[in-house]
What does this fold into?
Amino acid sequence: MAGPKRNFQIFDPLDFLAEVTQHIPEKGDHQIRYYGWYSNKNRGQRAKAQPAVAVAEPQESGAKPLAPGGKQARKRWAALIKQVYEADPLACPKCGSEMRIIAFIERRQTEVVEKILRHCGLWEEAPARDPPPVPEPAVG
Ligand SMILES: [Zn+2]
It folds into this structure.
């Protein structure tokens, strides 16, 4: 392969900006491309091989509007994940049976997370940190 045998290039500032900005995509450009297992071709072939499983569930529950937290909403959520990632989020990793959702925990509910992890014996107390150093007052 011809070309400079180095891993750097020195530019004038404007030349550098010109080189960098030519890689900024146009507004609306298609930027996400799926290859291999997640490509449309592969997903289509897998869907044809086993037609009813992943496709039927979202359609049957998608007909009516769903109340948040309802049983249908839970099924729809799981069906959408199953359709996109082709993995059942409600399947128990140990025995394979269907797991039930007992609660949704949001990021702000740190006390709930701590309570659950303490109950499961998984809570680890983080060592206390020193306070940040006090900056020296500027002399001037
Ligand atoms: Zn299980």
